[in-house]
Design goal:
The complex is a heterodimer of chains A (439) and B (546).
Chain A: H1 3-17, E1 24-30, H2 34-47, E2 51-57, H3 60-69, E3 78-81, H4 84-92, E4 96-97, H5 103-106, E5 112-113, E6 116-117, E7 125-138, H6 139-144, E8 165-168, H7 174-187, H8 189-202, E9 203-207, H9 212-218, E10 224-228, H10 229-237, E11 242-245, E12 252-260, H11 266-277, H12 279-284, E13 293-294, H13 322-327, H14 329-341, H15 344-363, H16 369-382, H17 390-393, H18 396-401, H19 408-438
Parallel strand pairs in A: 1-2, 1-3, 8-9, 8-10
Antiparallel strand pairs in A: 3-12, 4-12, 5-6, 7-10, 7-11, 7-12, 7-13
Helix pairs in contact in A: 7-8, 8-15, 14-19, 15-16, 15-19, 16-19
Chain B: H1 2-20, H2 34-41, H3 43-76, E1 77-78, H4 82-88, H5 99-108, H6 113-122, H7 131-156, H8 160-168, H9 173-184, H10 186-202, H11 205-209, H12 216-224, H13 232-257, E2 272-273, H14 276-293, H15 295-304, E3 306-308, E4 317-318, H16 321-329, H17 332-361, H18 367-379, H19 382-393, H20 410-433, H21 437-445, H22 450-477, H23 482-487, H24 496-504, H25 510-536
Parallel strand pairs in B: 1-2
Antiparallel strand pairs in B: 3-4
Classes of the chains: A alpha/beta (439), B mainly alpha (546).
Chain lengths: 439, 546
Amino acid sequence: MNRAAVLSSLLAIFIVATTPLFAKEVVIVTSFPKELFETYKKAFEAKNPGTKVIINSKQTNAGVTYIRETKTRPEADIFWVSAPDAFQTLKADGLLDKYSPPKEIMSRIPAKIGTFPIHDPDGSYFGFAVSGYGLMWNKNYMQAHKLPAPKEWVDLANSRYYGHTVISAPSRSGTTHLTVEVILQAYGWDKGWALLLNSGGNMGAITERSFGVPEAVNSGQYGIGVVIDFFGLSAIASGQPVDFAYPSLTSVVPASVGIVKGGPNPESAKAFVNYLLGEAGQMVLFSPEIARLPVIPELYAKGPKNYPNPFTMKLGGLDFNNRLSSGRRDVVNSLYDHIITFRHRELKEAWGTIYRAEEAIARGKGKDLAQARNLVAEARKLASQAPINDKKASDKDVVGAFKSKSGLKAELETEWEKLARANYAKAKELAEKAAGLAR
Amino acid sequence: MAALLALLVLFILYPVVRVLWVSLSDEEGKLTLLHFANFFRRPLFREALWNSLLSGVLVVLFGSLMAVPLAYFSVRYEFRGKILLQTLATLPLVIPPFVGAVALQLILGRSGMVNLLLMRWFDWSVPFMEGLTGVVLVQTLHFFPFIMLNTAVSLSNIDPSMEEMAQNMGCRGLRLFGRITLPLMLPGYIAGSLLTFIRVIDDLGTPLMLNYKNLLAPQAYLRITTIGIDDVDGYVICVILVILSLVSLAAARKYLGLAEYATVQRGAVAARPVHGRKRFLVLLFCGLVLGISLLPHMGIFLLSFSKVWSFSILPATYTLDNYTEILFRVPHFVRNTLLYTILAAGLDVILGAAIAFLLLRSRIWGRNLLDAIATLPLAIPGVVLAVGYLRVFHGWDFPGAGAPLTSTWFILVIAYTMRRLPYTVRASYAALQQVHVSLEESAQNLGANRLKTFYKVTLPLITGGLVAGGLIAFITSSVELSSTIMLVPRFELGPISYGIYVYMQSAALGRGAGAALGVVAILLVSLGTYLTHRVFGGRAGSAFRV
């Protein structure tokens, strides 16, 4: 047929299509919102005439895959996202270049925020803004459902919020994973998981994307969401009927930038990193549609009034152990998915039944209230139990299973899932029995 | 044939195998079936498999109840507003990513318009969007046009004398439909149902928007796209999905192969006008089906003019800013979409016709392989194909392009072409199945060579199928996201779906601007569909009557 004609016209299109190359460019892979990268693009291009900023906006996980798959011939110079685990992964794969920015820039930025190091100690990536985790809620929704505003992480496990809350799965969102780690480290492994399982049973939905949470709260589908601060702050700034608060036990972590190894424009890449970490670049963060926290403490004096300052904020005294957190990340995420995300229906049913039984006991008409209380306590215990202890979660073989193809991972995940199914079914059964006794 | 096979191997099979090989190899890179054995040992995956199959069957069932009457009315009856019906009926296929989900939640969600009204009036609400029921509901509303479009083409290709003979012998009404019309329109109906079934079990967008994860496609996607882990189970599920799709394809072909559908006579049964009560019922049915299935679109429309729409029946404040943003600040999204999707749909029609022709009219060895490869993309998640492209095409300059293929926008056209190729193949295949080979043989007896026969006889007869397939390819490409997001080389080269993603990330501009882009996508598709009806609708013979 006319395949030859088609092919040759295709080639012709290619030649025309290939975008002309500018003399100097810096190509940036980022997951940040448009207003952020557009503002920086304009500001950087104005400062460096002749250099063009090329933006390649991708979800964080798509960005990591893209950098990985293009490593034979990198096209990006800069990797620029929030999630610390994305940088850790790229660094572990040797896909980030080491760099040491000029002393006059680095000397103004402290080494740590709270207990979290701002920059990678080896110079593979640099924190340029910090963010904290908290709770946002929809004021209209809370009013209609007659609910008080939440304050602390433990509020998420309160029966009054049953079905009204929303979170993104930690395996899908580096920021949620850190929230989960904050909870696990602040309350300890067993109590932490009890809180996560109880609040997981309360969740109306567990979303697959970080921005699914602010979206669900902004549109009023759910009342309360676990989010990173700028989602809440910028939604308030754009007039949504929402509010945001940091719980007293929170953690503040940096959003980072790194230079891609072997990128086409190493000099421009360095210039961009320097710009981002320097005063001019840092001041941009204060603009209301960006609403992020600079890493140079002295700049807060020049910022807007009442702007949250993480360097003076009380961070609840939590000694966040970053090494522990990143060491067991895959295990914690998979555990959360297999006992909470993928078993959400069963978990939610179990907790719903427990709450109903407790209400029946509180009304207290039945004869066997003591027996009913025991049964509910047993049910609560079953629905709050993590399948493994913290020692096992950091065990070399277990952690290794998530990096290999040995089949151990499948075994572990199946074991966790089966245990969760059995526990939740039993918990539901016990709670039903208790409710029967109390009636 | 060889060139066609080479093309498909290069752009479908090889990239996909490069990615999926991991599911069949152990740590030393040797062949193993361990991962597949593990798949069946895990209750989670068995549950997901069962849920996927169940939703596939249910959606085909409920979808048929909506689609077959619609197809019948639109082909056999003449009434005002028919072209509007035909245009609107394709729109459910276009649910723009993200904003479609938001809009649907705002209408049917737990605090959506419908439930807020129900709560106000009856203090009662319906969980439309929860669990597997919600998934089946949304998928039915989303995918039924596949069945409708393909059934309508078949229906309009039925030899009128068949029905006339039956009528002469006293067969009427439902009996006529069940005994004569239904069996004769099976090629299109089966093609549409097959597409729907495969699309449903591979559908990622709906389960993710409803936060339902215990299905095969989301399990595969979640595992493949988790940062830092190469979860082999994700790829195993992809292979399982491919196998399921190929098995259902084979089953459908085997079933259709049992009978003969080709007819020599051309020219459809003339559409007849309807009056009175019947007309009212027909219009009522069409209105109900379309009204419900276009709820997300109405939601997107409202959302695009809204500034704040939060826990209220209608938006609280309205604005035109969203349109200023997308029409004046970033018009390139619209232009790119048009360029990519029209090119892709065009290529799909050419390739689809060629493949269908080889499948049905040649005896060349390997033609079934061609069919299998061309069907693969239905079952391959977009992200797998995209990763395969990066892996295969990234390292070297493509001849004539001066850069790797993956650095140019043409990679998007290729991705769309390959991902939507199954639609044109199936549509052309169904159309060609109804053309009796004796028509071509007589042309050849009269001295026309094969090429001339194809252009003068076959092609005009299967135009309806080609156009229907091309239209579906165009429509579904215009909102493709999963491979787009991986392959867009830079912001300026992104299409509308990518633009929606970019807007959804931002709280300030947010979903309003995304919804405005969604409205533009919907308008583009409606315009395309309308024009297609205009251009091809009036042709006699194998008229395109959809």
